Amino acid sequence: MAVQVFCNVCFSEAHKPTPRFSLTSCGHVICEICLQKGKKDECLICRTPCRTVFLSKQTNPDIQSLFMGIDTLCKKYSKELTQISEFQEKHRKHLLAYHRQKTLKLEESLKKVTQQMHQLQCMKPSEQTTQLPFSSTSRNPLSIPSRKQNAYSSYSLHPSHPSTSEIMESMEIDPVPSPMRKV
């Protein structure tokens, strides 16, 4: 033991010929000779009920640490603290990596949903426009174009294939879903 041990009653120090020392549960150190002079289970210093433990190399390490030098304790506990700190840091990093991955997945999902919503919003205006019933004034996409049309239009270049927008203009859209159709 690095710290000087002495009896709190007779102040004798620990030497080879001296008797063993005990530590009381109230925190006093008493030599074996003084301990025999007092009452059993009572501290000679503060007169309170207490338990005693003989100090030796087999004593609990927590009790032994009370008598170690501060430099020795610092080395011992700094090593333990370093191990604990590294352990906790490793687990914090692992948790952070998990949350980063989860955030990336959520951001990707949000981006996909936002794109889908944008696509749906772009489609809605053309679907929501009210279509007039087919009449003689509406354009027939399969009719031969007049000479007044622009020479660069799809009719003049490909008279057998009408453009998608022209086909859409002549189509009627039923806003009521069919009972046979799955929603």
Give an overview of the whole structure.
The protein is mainly alpha-helical and 183 residues long. Among the domains are: 1-68, Herpes Virus-1 (2-Layer Sandwich), CATH 3.30.40; 69-122. Helices cover 44% and strands 5% of the residues. It has 5 helices and 3 strands, in the order ββαβαααα. It has helices at residues 32-37, 61-64, 70-128, 154-157, 164-170; strands at 21-24, 29-31, 52-54. Strands 2-1-3 form a 3-stranded antiparallel beta sheet. A hairpin with a 4-residue loop joins β1 (21-24) and β2 (29-31). The longest helix is centred in the middle third of the chain and has 59 residues, at 70-128. It is rod-shaped, with a radius of gyration of 47 Å. The two termini are 83 Å apart. The model is unreliable at 135-159 (pLDDT under 50). Residues 126-151 have a biased composition (Polar residues). Residues 7-47 form the RING-type domain.
